[in-house]
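Sample pair:
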Amino acid sequence: MSAQKVILIGPMGAGKTTLGTLISAELGWPYFDNDGELASLNDLTVEQLSALSVPELHALEGEYLQHVMQRPAPFIAGAAASVIDYPESVKLLREATSIYLRLPLEKLLERAGSTGIGRQALAENAQAVITERFMRRDPHYREVASYTCELGDDPQIDAAKIIEWLKLQTQIG
């Protein structure tokens, strides 16, 4: 498992940061959080990132994925939900061990919130935006993912499922 670059993908609210932190602690690998590093690398505050237009933010998120993929393995990193929309990012996701953190739409609607980085488009009609993005992106996440983890209500259990899958891949490979 020492050569793996694990990228957690999925929509806002899926739990990339929570699960990335749990998996990282268990495996002893570094975890790179998209939002925190995006602010730091671009010398912006979280508030400034949250105020960017959607196209500006998506461009920075794609650049961040390119940046993190240049780091030596092993690591766990969270990717912005938007990266699945761009062919150059999809290519990078295919080069890594991409894990789709899949939540049912109803749970996403509960979790996503309407403030913070990447939530600019949710200000007017969050339910419609989240639903449209889920319907459009879900098949693409599934296609690019090395593993799709159907999430439950307990992040500890979800992290254990992902770790078990990662370990199994090493035994097989």
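Helices lie at 16-27, 34-41, 46-51, 54-69, 87-95, 105-111, 122-144, 155-172.
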